[in-house]
Write a sequence for this structure.
């Protein structure tokens, strides 16, 4: 009330009553509620059926919708699981209206306890109403995107170094998974851009004019995140192409080496094959040192071919 939290634990009915005075609002937080658990909140604040259905079922894309005098916002929270190089997404859905804000969390979404404490420590800002809470939650969610960006950036740098290290590895699978995670994260971030831009520019009764610069700041942060994800996607495409080129080059080198050794070994094979045909009248069969002469010819020709192939870069 008037920027100061009322102390004590309140029942749902007491919380409804606490938000009715003109200078007060109530913040109700729920975690994966069922339809029955959400029924009282829905009835008290006259929430729209479609928004309630989205809040209960979750798995929505980030968005902002206005139902009469209530704003419904869907956010995607994210954190990076470094050990498996995977981004885990959860959801926070918010109903904002005159005198109330209802947050519904699905999955291990960003914790809001710290957000609440930070707001309680700034009564002047909290006095701006439910819109101030919406800003604080948005700010926390977008700030949590930063570690994800850094995690992706580090892993992309690692795989880039791996491709150009000269080692005979093929990190194509890792590149593909990093690219997939970048795309998934991009899909979670970009739909939020028009929603936040609308909060910064549109005339919404529960968003006071004093809050618009704050939403513009969040919009700028989101733009930077989106731009970084686009650059990650382009870089991963280039790294994947470079990796495929490296693989093709190594395969060509292997084929040249194999072909060179086949050509070298063909010489003694041919000579031995000729003298293994068991014809009675063949030249040099009665020669005393014929065996050693043939071996010397084989070694000489093979040595010459080996030298020529090495000079040509095939060996």
């Amino acid at each position: 009330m008037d920027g100061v939290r009322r102390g004590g634990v309140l029942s749902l009915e007491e919380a409804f009553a606490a938000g009715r005075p003109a200078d007060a609002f109530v913040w109700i937080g729920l975690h994966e509620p069922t339809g029955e658990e959400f029924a009282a909140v829905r009835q008290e604040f006259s929430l729209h059926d479609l928004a309630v259905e989205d809040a209960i079922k979750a798995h929505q894309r980030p968005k902002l919708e206005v139902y009469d005098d209530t704003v419904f916002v869907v956010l995607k929270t994210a954190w990076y699981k470094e050990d498996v190089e995977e981004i885990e997404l959860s959801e926070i859905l918010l109903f904002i209206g005159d005198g109330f804000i209802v947050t519904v969390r699905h999955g291990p979404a960003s914790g809001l306890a710290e957000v609440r404490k930070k707001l309680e420590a700034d009564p002047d800002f909290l006095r701006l109403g439910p819109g101030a809470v919406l800003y604080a939650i948005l700010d926390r969610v977008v700030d949590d995107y930063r570690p994800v960006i850094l995690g992706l950036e580090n892993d992309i740098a690692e795989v880039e170094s791996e491709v150009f290290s000269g080692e005979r590895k093929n990190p194509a699978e890792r590149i593909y998974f990093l690219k997939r995670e970048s795309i998934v994260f991009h899909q979670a971030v970009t739909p939020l851009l028009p929603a936040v831009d609308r909060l910064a520019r549109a005339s919404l009764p529960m968003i006071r004019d004093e809050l618009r610069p704050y939403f513009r700041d969040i919009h700028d942060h989101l733009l930077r995140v989106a731009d970084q994800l686009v650059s990650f996607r382009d870089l991963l495409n280039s790294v994947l192409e470079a990796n495929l080129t490296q693989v093709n080059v190594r395969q060509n080198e292997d084929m040249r080496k194999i072909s060179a050794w086949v050509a070298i070994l063909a010489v003694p094979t041919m000579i031995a094959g000729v003298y293994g045909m068991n014809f009675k009248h063949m030249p040099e069969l009665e020669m005393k040192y014929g065996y050693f002469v043939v071996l010397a010819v084989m070694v000489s020709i093979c040595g010459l071919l080996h030298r020529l192939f090495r000079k040509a870069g095939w060996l």
Notes: The chain has a mean pLDDT of 82. The two ends are 82 Å apart (CA to CA). The domain at 255-311 is CATH 1.20.58.340 (Methane Monooxygenase Hydroxylase; Chain G, domain 1).
